[in-house]
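FW: tagging you since you asked about this chain on Friday. Here's the raw sequence from the shared folder, copied in full. Didn't touch anything.
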Amino acid sequence: MEELRLIEEIRKRAGSPGKGVRAGIGDDCAVLDYDSKKYLLWAADMLVEGTHFSVKEAGYRKIGRKAVAVNISDIAAMGGVPAYITVAAGIPPRMDRTAVRAVYDGIFGMCKDHGIRVIGGDTNRSDSLVISVSIIGFVEKKRLLRRNGAKEGDLILVTGPVRDGRRDHLDFVPRLKEARFLSARYSIHSMIDVSDGIAPDLGRICAESGLGCKVYAGSIPLSRRLTLEDALYYGESFELLFTMSATESRKLFLDMRSGRRAPLYFIIGEMSRKSGGLRLIRDEGRSVALKTKGYRHL
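HL: got it, structure written out here
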């Protein structure tokens, strides 16, 4: 079954999340009331051998590291700061104690780098290696970022150059600092992390905001060896994709220049009316449909 269709079915069956839940299914994290100044962010992500990694190519430590990193990226996409995780691991019989330790070395190393505490979890026997991490973070109410706030005429920006998800997915650094920088200084209307590809993840912003978009192929910043096709549809780069007004965008780039820092943010398109659909503008000016296919988890 297609992943997006399955998620939508689950969303309908789940119904209203109830009192105290500000956002449920449909964002990178669930958003819950916490206190007068902050929301609690809660997310979960699972890595499955054969779908998200090959042990032979990756090594156990990097697999553990990525299991935490993808969850931190979800917290970043909401403008928050990670605090706690639980880790559930399905461990195949072929793994000895040294291999299991290596996985947890990667987990604890990433947690140490970001001030995260491991507070629980579970282990079970499994046919293949599976690591499921649940993460809790916090965000100031005025700095919460979601997918559903994009406005017609917003510019679409991405952190970058966009990383090569095929080669760099085990070593990426979550864009936590960038998200905190943006949410502190500018009015960001929507944000998502690029896990499945620019096209499907931008499609999620469009769907949640009730808008269409235009993406300019020649404006997407590509890292060395990365193809436009992979940037759009493969994913696993975990850059941040976000929208803001043209006025706020000018402020951002003026601030970057005045600080004598190389821009980390690139304008790649604009939000448009829903009736216009999702369009990709090729270098020669030809407009084609921007498909929302992406990295397949199912």
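FW: The CA atoms of residues 87 and 121 lie 4 Å apart.
HL: agreed, and The longest strand covers residues 38-48.
FW: great, closing this out.
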